Amino acid sequence: MAASYVLVTATAVLLVEAVIVALVLIPQSKASDLASVLQEQAGGDTKVLSLEAARLSAADPGLPAGELLELAVEESGGRTIVGGGRPPEPGYAMLELVIGTGGEIVASSALGIYQPGGTLDVPLPGHEGGGASTTRVGPSTWHFSPVLMRSANGFDTLGYVYVQAPDDAAPRGLQSGEALALIVPGALVLALVVPVGLVFGLLSTRRLTSRVRRLAGVTTAVAAGDFRPRVTVSGADEVSTLERSFNVMTDKLGAAVESARLTARTEARQAERGRIARELHDSISQDLFSLSLLAAGMRRAAPQQLRGQADAMERTAARAMREMQALLLELRPVALEDAGLLPALEGLCRAYETRLGVKVEAVLAEVALAPAAEHAVLRLVQEALGNAIKHANPATIEVRLSARGDVTTVAVSDDGAGFDPDDVTARHGMGLTLMRERVTELGGRLDVRSGAGGTTVTATFSAPAPGQSTGTAGPA
């Protein structure tokens, strides 16, 4: 950026130098065309006078040539230099005379030098032409152009338009010495301005350059996939607006990437759960079913002393099949995002009731939960149902979901065989541990009450509003 200051300054100085050179060259080229300018000036005024003379002669054919020429000058209406109306060629000090065929001056634009009635000190050429000589005003360049009028014999010459200009009348450009006197200071100024502009550019852009460099560094980190760095916002200019906008953009981009990662992990986990469920159903469930049929056949065909063992084998196979079915339902993916929490819970309860023959009563109230909290509630109910089926052998299970203020309560009760909540390592340790972890991540509390009349698992937590964070809870 400092170089741009130097470049702009140098360009300005060079433009000034170019203008000086133009002042030297253009007027000199114009001065070399003085003769052609005089010829053009005389030719234009000759045409005007010739037309006026033709008009006057047509109106009065008897006018003599001298009088006709004087009347043509008067009737030109200021359209010629000698008539006093039209100025000479801009930039040239010239005079114009109308000369009769005898050399007498008929009209003059410079009465102080050439009076009408006098004679010209340059001989008449008898035709159009020009030249250079010393006249009353000194060395001059001049040009004659005849005033013609059509007659029976062709064209008659009524007189001449004479245009004269001193040799130094043309605009004089700067001489080489004068131009040099202007160019040299400009070069010195350029030599001084370049280092000054460089220093000024460095001082004035140092802070801006460091800010842009810092922004570029953070941009490189973000482009590499690291969304943690942020730009320090300083000042209140356009760059600070860019810094602030970049931070906002990085926050949103990081959140979007993290959401995509969570979604990918969730989908991968759901796919894995589905794969495990299919393998369990296709292999172990079929084997357990076959074992149950074999045990039933053995019980019917075995001798009396072996029927007890066969009956125990059949009950064990049936219990294993029941637990396997409960496990498959736990692994069953639920489309929470498409259905919503209440339809997902109702569908889960119907699945347990239909496939396992256990009555499941669902008392569900509308609650406003964040997506992560909804998922945690769904998984908690799913695990509580699975534990009840696998370990308690209940006839009825009740699922309740309610809210009072910002406190949400989830309760799963069964009428099966109870257990000692203080000694759950052997049978219920993993399921209760997972449920407790889920509720803890929501900032809530899990209570387990069990006895001879059944078991009740209750989770209580403050419900975050949709869109708010729920801690580190994630889909499982």
Characteristic key phrases:
476 residues; alpha+beta; Beta-Lactamase; Heat Shock Protein 90; 5-stranded antiparallel sheet; 5-stranded mixed sheet; 10 helices; rod-shaped; kinase; transmembrane; HAMP_dom; histidine kinase; HATPase_C_sf
Q: What's this entry about, in short?
A:
It contains ten helices and ten strands. The chain has helices at residues 2-31, 34-59, 65-75, 176-223, 238-301, 307-331, 336-339, 341-356, 371-392, 429-441; strands spanning 95-100, 105-108, 129-135, 138-151, 154-166, 359-364, 396-404, 407-414, 445-451, 454-462.
Architecture overview:
The protein is an alpha+beta fold and 476 residues long. The chain folds into three domains: 33-166, Beta-Lactamase; 240-333; 340-476, 2-Layer Sandwich (Heat Shock Protein 90). The protein contains ten helices and ten strands. The strands form two sheets. The protein has a five-stranded antiparallel beta sheet with strand order 2-1-5-4-3. Helix 8 packs parallel to helix 9 and helix 9 packs antiparallel against helix 10 (429-441).
